[in-house]
């Protein structure tokens, strides 16, 4: 059974371009709730996560809520292995698929078809899996002959369509999603929503961050309220979302 567990996970992100004693003092005074500090080597760091203890198990559909800068995206990236905790640990069982930057790994000078392979490999797919899924990706993105042209000739909407089609073709046991992106006109948006719903239903664990509390209530059974890099509340979705809304107005 899939699971992901954080034990005392703390993440300090260094700010290397802060030079001079007076500037350091100014930056340190800006810190809220001890989120900005100076480490033992004199480097200014932002404490992006602070002593996070969490365990997600099969069947969990977790909605991350909190103000901008609360630590939602950082938490997702830490669970995905993009960030390594400064202190504590992250343990998991099951294939993690992070849909955080869906265009990562795509190359402007390669064709759409070549980028299907590049993005697929980055997501952990084998060549055999990519070959098996290519036709369905081609049909879903609806880009036709453009797939034989370099990515640099694509509009921003076409790029997102291709990236979305590849990213959502992978089979995930643990799905991490940071905001649902716009992917084109109304008809394609409907297809994209259906595809995301199918992806959610097949994953054992889903953790997603978004600002639409109504969508959190609709698709999640639990909510995690992040505040200043700390867990403010974690529990049944309605209970936590209602508490958050009462706090922020």
Task: Sum this structure up briefly.
It comes from Paraburkholderia acidisoli. It contains eight helices and ten strands.
Walk me through the structure.
The protein folds into two domains: 3-94 and 209-248, P-loop containing nucleotide triphosphate hydrolases (Rossmann fold); 99-203, Rossmann fold. 37% of the residues lie in helices and 28% in strands. The protein is built from eight helices and ten strands. It has helices spanning 21-30, 72-80, 112-122, 127-141, 156-167, 186-202, 213-219, 237-248, and strands spanning 3-15, 36-38, 44-57, 61-65, 87-93, 96-99, 174-178, 205-209, 222-227, 230-236. Strands 6-7-8-4-9-10 form a six-stranded mixed beta sheet, sandwiched between helices. The chain has a four-stranded antiparallel beta sheet with strand order 2-3-1-5. The radius of gyration is 20 Å and the shape is globular. Residues 18-248 form the ABC transporter domain. Belongs to the ABC transporter superfamily. This is ATP-binding cassette domain-containing protein. One of its GO terms (molecular function) is ABC-type transporter activity.
Q: What's the layout of helices and strands?
A:
Blueprint: E1 3-15, H1 21-30, E2 36-38, E3 44-57, E4 61-65, H2 72-80, E5 87-93, E6 96-99, H3 112-122, H4 127-141, H5 156-167, E7 174-178, H6 186-202, E8 205-209, H7 213-219, E9 222-227, E10 230-236, H8 237-248
Parallel strand pairs: 4-8, 4-9, 6-7, 7-8
Antiparallel strand pairs: 1-3, 1-5, 2-3, 9-10
Helix pairs in contact: 3-4, 3-5, 4-5
Keywords: ATP-binding, Cell inner membrane, Cell membrane, Membrane, Nucleotide-binding, Transport
Pfam families: ABC_tran
Family: Belongs to the ABC transporter superfamily.
């Amino acid at each position: 059974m899939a699971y992901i567990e954080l034990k005392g996970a703390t993440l300090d992100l260094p700010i290397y371009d802060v030079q001079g004693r007076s500037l350091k003092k100014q930056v340190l005074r800006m810190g809220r709730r001890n989120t900005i500090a100076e480490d033992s080597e004199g480097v200014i760091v932002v404490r992006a996560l602070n002593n996070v203890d969490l365990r997600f198990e099969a069947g969990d559909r977790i909605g991350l809520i909190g103000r901008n800068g609360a630590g939602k995206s950082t938490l997702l990236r830490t669970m995905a292995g993009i960030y390594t905790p400064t202190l504590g640990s992250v343990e998991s069982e099951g294939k993690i698929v992070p849909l955080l930057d869906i265009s990562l790994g795509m190359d402007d000078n390669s064709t759409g078809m070549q980028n299907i392979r590049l993005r697929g490999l980055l997501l952990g797919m084998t060549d055999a899996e990519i070959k098996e899924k290519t036709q369905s990706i081609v049909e879903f993105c609806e880009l036709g002959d453009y797939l034989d042209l370099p990515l640099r000739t694509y509009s921003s909407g076409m790029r997102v369509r291709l990236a979305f089609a590849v990213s959502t073709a992978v089979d995930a046991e643990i799905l991490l999603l940071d905001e649902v992106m716009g992917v084109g006109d109304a008809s394609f948006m409907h297809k994209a929503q259906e595809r995301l719903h199918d992806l959610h239903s097949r994953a054992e664990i889903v953790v997603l961050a978004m600002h639409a509390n109504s969508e959190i209530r609709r698709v999640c059974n639990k909510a995690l309220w992040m505040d200043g890099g700390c867990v403010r509340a974690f529990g049944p979705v309605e209970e936590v979302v209602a508490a958050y809304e009462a706090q922020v107005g």
